[in-house]
Amino acid sequence: METDKPVAIFIGIDPGSSSGGIAVIECYEGGNNNCYAKEIAKMTDKDIAAFFQDMRVNMELGIKVKAIIEKVHAVFGSSAKAMFSFGGNFHSIQMAMICNKISFEFMLPAMWMKDFGMKKEKGEVKTVWKKRLRQRAEQIFPDATIVTNTSDAVLIAEFCRRKHQ
Fold it and tell me: Could you say which of 11, 107, 121, 150 has the lowest number of CB atoms within 10 Å?
């Protein structure tokens, strides 16, 4: 029987500056899961802070909350503005999690992608690769609204669930 509150929450974070996302998988008694995701580019710092404050409240209610942040780095050739924005997202999210005592770890992309049997093919165009990631996320969560910018985060959240449940 499903309860009103989840028993566990797993968070996946792709901290990209324009294409990043935060995804949440809420796990309920009986094995039912709910998945939703937000695009980071559409969130303000206040939204991010409020999101993680809500997660802290969940922990105070006895709900297990775990998170994985994709461990990424600057991309050669990216603009200074993009890198500044990316770094800001990366550190704002970490600080919000630390302040709210949310347990998190870093994960290299290759680690979580391997769990889904996903690997970017040599010469594969980025748009085709991102489409494959989105399709995989939609296979796992057919009822969730997943866009290209949040598909990585959804898969990271699912990897987190598999690792910590």
Answer: 121
* Phi, psi (rounded to 5 degrees) for 142: -65, -20
Query: Which tokens in the block code for residue 10?
Result: 């797993």
Residue type for position 7: V
How far is it, in rounded angstroms, from Cα 133 to Cα 148? 8
Between the CA of residue 25 and those of 6, 67, 80, 101, 157, what are the distances in Å?
Answer: 9, 10, 33, 19, 6
What does pTM read for this prediction? 0.90
**Model confidence pLDDT, tens digit, residues 19-56:** 789 999 999 998 889 999 999 888 888 999 999 999 99
Concatenated DSSP letters of the chain: ---SS-SEEEEEEE--TTT-EEEEEEE-GGG-EEEEEEEGGG--HHHHHHHHHHHHHHHHTT-EEEEEEE-----TT--HHHHHHHHHHHHHHHHHHHHTT-EEEEE-HHHHHHHTT--PPTT--HHHHHHHHHHHHHHH-TTS---HHHHHHHHHHHHHHHHH-
